[in-house]
Design goal:
Elements lengths: L2 H25 L1 H6 L4 H23 L12 E3 L7 E3 L7
Antiparallel strand pairs: 1-2
Length: 93
């Protein structure tokens, strides 16, 4: 995957995942209301938590193609957005 593809994945995947979880919770709205849960608070919290979990999953598990060695072993660097380091050759790009 290229860095631009990684950016799109890290932007779109958390939104889609959080929307799917929120939609599933909305389907259970009758049960939540009957048991005294505040529907919109639960959906909002689920959206936020799922968004950050999905962002972390993309950050740690989606590999990029290294331009130097050609292996899919480059991952986003911690603390620096849109900077990547290959685990095989240690090149930063």
């Amino acid at each position: 995957m290229s860095p631009s593809g990684f950016f799109l994945t890290s932007f779109i995947a958390p939104i889609l995942g959080a929307t799917a979880v929120s939609g599933l919770l909305f389907l259970g709205r009758k049960w939540m209301i009957e048991h005294g849960f505040s529907l919109w608070v639960v959906i909002f919290l689920a959206f936020v938590v799922t968004f950050f979990i999905m962002r972390a999953v993309v950050h740690y598990f989606v590999a990029l193609l290294c331009p130097k060695c050609g292996n899919k072993t480059a991952y986003e660097m911690d603390g620096i957005s849109s900077r990547f380091r290959c685990r095989m050759c240690s090149k930063e790009f």
